[in-house]
Amino acid sequence: MKTKIAISLALCSVLGACNSDDTAKEKPPEIKASMVELELQSVITTQQITALTPPSDRVLIETPLAQLGKHLFFTKALSGNLDTACASCHHPNLGGGDALVLPVGVEALEQDLLGPGRLHDANGVHHDAGPTVPRNSPSTFNIAFYTKSIFHDGRIEMVGDSGSMRTPDVPKGQADANAGTSLAQAQARFPVTSREEMRGFTFEQGTNEELRGALTARFNGTSNELAINNWLEAFRQGLEQPQADAASLLTFDNITLAIAAYENSQVLVENPWAAYLNGDKEAISEQAKRGALLFYKSENQGGFDCASCHSGSFFSDESFHVLAVPQIGRGKGDGVYGDDDFGRFRETKDEDDKYAFRTPTLLNVMQTGPWSHSGAFTQLSDMVLHHFNPSESVADYVPDDVQPGIQYAHWQENTELALAQLARLQDQEKSLLPRASIEKDQLDDLLAFLATLTDPCTVDPACMNKWVPSSDEVDPDGLRLVAYDEDGNLL
Ligand code: HEC
Ligand code: HEC
User: Fold this and answer.
1) N or C: which end of the chain has fewer CB within 10 A?
2) Within this chain, do residues 208 and 316 fall inside the same structural domain, yes or no?
3) What local confidence, expressed as pLDDT, does residue 20 receive?
4) What is the CATH number for 345?
């Protein structure tokens, strides 16, 4: 009796509109609702769950440096054969990714066609009719919040506490003196070096550093590969040095600095869940609240403890875990067939890291599909279900032609090895993946919760277009990617 009174009193304070005659009997649906609300409030307090706040040194897209970065992000001048831009795989109106299972970078049949329908030109080098890149393109949204590592396998990562970073340019464990000042800046040095992404199969310019030098020469005019070149003016504005000369301004370091400023300005964290955490109790639905409970509660409380890996307000522990998602695509050269991907093991050579990939953030996850490092899941529900019964999920997986030519030659053999690795880690209690089962309505609740992590800006081109160069802005080299989808609509 005592508890009943306590609950209905608390309900009154939650709904804020009770009068003295309201009783539990008269209003059963709200009573049920209030229980969820109360329980969630208690979980939030206990687990100290808070909304993500933008970093204090947040870069705004309006700043000159981020504006310069925008033009660099969209120019094909950074690719060996002038056919691919960063935005070819990370378009703001495609969730910061490319909406493909696996990317097609250089030698696309139609360079400016993004998303479904983007194909590798049959006359291209190494053409096998399939996507050229082995891993799914992650979103550039909110990468400013990664503090430890970047890439699915974390191969660019902080080392020590001094802000030093390790990159693929230096031996393992060492710091790369040229990495720059943020993970995003260090990362921007590498897409240009990948043959499949931007370098091209035929652009021979020696080492990574020589290649960067050759690209920089285009910008500073020491090579005359660009028919139009107004980059000096753009860099003077972007770096706010109106008098500086080409040699001092048009450096590869300044290119990556500006690109990083642009990417770090993509802070998209104003979602209904954050509004709810900040006190707006109506910001999310009852169903989403049930989903949040399942997400945060531990297994012995009847939840799924998703937050053990998707932890904190950024929904990632920035650590590496084995999930054994279907290993489709051309792979990273690992395994007996050379089309497997050992993930974090490639970096650490630690057996427990074989097939482990970084926990991705779940912010805006509705917009960032297809999901997982291999892009194997085109339905978010399948991605979530996979966590519960990976073997069954793999057994039920149907390789199909969602995207033409995906390489499926040994996906089963490779994925079986990943499943065996997961089973071993679970038996040795080294895996945080719960061995739980999920009901249909619980899945719907979880998906409703995940939907509250969408910043409305990400689904509104009018809002996102500040990250896309507009036609009335100067195109410094005439090589701007003006992207369209397979129906011919501009993105
Ligand atoms: C052909 C497609 C393609 C192009 C072009 C491309 N990327 Fe990527 N990008 C990817 C893929 C695939 C990954 C994941 C690679 C991995 O983890 O091994 C990635 C990863 C990233 C990440 C890391 C995100 C994270 O969550 O860790 C950033 C940042 C990024 N790219 C920025 C850029 C920039 C800047 C450029 C241009 C200089 C660029 N990309 C060009 C496909 C592309
Ligand atoms: C053991 C740690 C762990 C737990 C627990 C966990 N996840 Fe994940 N999750 C991951 C990792 C790692 C990936 C990426 C796997 C890959 O790329 O191959 C991932 C991927 C995802 C993705 C796809 C994101 C993307 O951008 O591709 C979603 C959605 C997701 N998890 C939701 C959940 C939900 C919901 C729960 C709770 C039911 C959960 N996760 C529990 C580690 C975990």
Assistant:
1) N
2) no
3) 41
4) 1.10.760
pTM of the model: 0.94
Query: Would 250 be classed as within a structural domain?
Result: yes
Extract the tokens encoding 252: 């590869």
In a domain, 188, yes or no: yes
Q: What is the number of H-type helices and E-type strands within the chain?
A: 16, 5
Which ligand does the CA of 142 lie closest to? 1
Ligand nearest, relative to CA of residue 141: 1
351 and 417 in a single domain? The answer is yes
In the chain, what is the straight-line distance between the N-terminal and C-terminal CA atoms, in Å? 60
In 333-477, which residue ranges form alpha helices assigned H by DSSP? 345-348, 380-388, 390-396, 411-427, 440-451, 461-464
227 and 361 within one domain: no
Cα angle for residues 440, 445, 451 (degrees, 5° grid)? 125
Nearest by Cα to 23 from 38, 39, 4: 4
The rounded Å distance from CA 453 to ligand 2 centre is: 14
- Does residue 213 sit in the same domain as residue 318? no
Ligand 2, pocket-test mutation among 135, 321, 377, most atoms within 8 A of CB: 321
- Counting the structural domains of the chain, the total is 2
CB of 267 closer than 6 angstroms to any ligand 2 atom? no
Q: Dihedral sign for Cα 307, 312, 316, 321, please.
A: negative
**What digits encode the pLDDT tens for the residues 164-218?**
999 999 998 899 999 999 999 999 999 999 999 999 999 988 999 999 999 999 9
Kindly report the length of the chain: 491
Q: Does the C-beta of 355 come closer than 6 Å to ligand 2?
A: no
Domain boundary among 433, 454, 479: 433
Residue nearest to atom 42 of ligand 1 (CA): 137
State which residues form the domain around 372: 306-433
The answer to whether the CB of 259 is under 6 A from ligand 1 is: yes
φ, ψ for residue 353, nearest 5 deg: -90, 0
Identify whether 256 is part of a domain. Answer: yes
Ligand 2 pocket member 453 (CB < 6 A): no
63 lines ligand 2 (CB under 6 A): no
Residue 283 lies in a domain: no
Would you state the pLDDT for residue 435?
Answer: 86
Is 8 in contact with 32 (CB distance < 8 Å)?
no
State whether the beta carbon of 384 lies less than 6 angstroms from ligand 2.
yes
End of a domain among 406, 433, 460? Answer: 433
